[in-house]
Write a structure and sequence with these properties.
Layout (H helix, E strand, L loop, with lengths): L1 E8 L9 H10 L3 E6 L7 E6 L2 E6 L8 E9 L3 H9 L9 E5 L1 E2 L2 E2 L2
Antiparallel strand pairs: 1-5, 1-6, 2-5, 3-4, 7-8
């Protein structure tokens, strides 16, 4: 089953470089599907529909210190394995790492 691991943190902390050895290990196990760092949150726009009109608000939403800084997609045997991999990222000890199943066209890929 595929899972997306969403890594939250402070984009300016320089920790994204710490991901390389972790990603190599996941790739060697055959579980890595994709991994990407995201641009700084100041480049984000939040799009909302208000009274039938699309409105863009510059910057991330919700406001806070931790932002989504990267994501990793893995294909694992279980949610426990995806959670184990998520725990390898240093941000799991600070801002947080979220694990979510990826849905297929007919729902969860189970």
């Amino acid at each position: 089953m595929k899972y997306v691991i969403m890594i939250y943190g402070n984009p300016g902390d320089g920790r994204i470089g710490e991901f390389d050895p972790l990603l190599r290990e996941i790739a060697e196990s055959g579980e890595l599907i994709d991994a990407r760092a995201l641009a700084d949150p100041v480049t984000a726009s939040t799009i909302r529909l208000h009274d039938g009109v699309l409105a863009a608000v510059e910057g991330p939403f919700p406001q806070g210190l931790a932002h989504l800084v990267a994501f990793v997609v893995v294909d694992c045997e279980s949610r426990d394995r995806a959670a184990e991999i998520a725990g390898w990222f240093p941000d799991a000890y600070t801002a947080g790492v979220e694990v979510r199943p990826v849905m297929g066209s007919s729902g969860l890929e189970m």
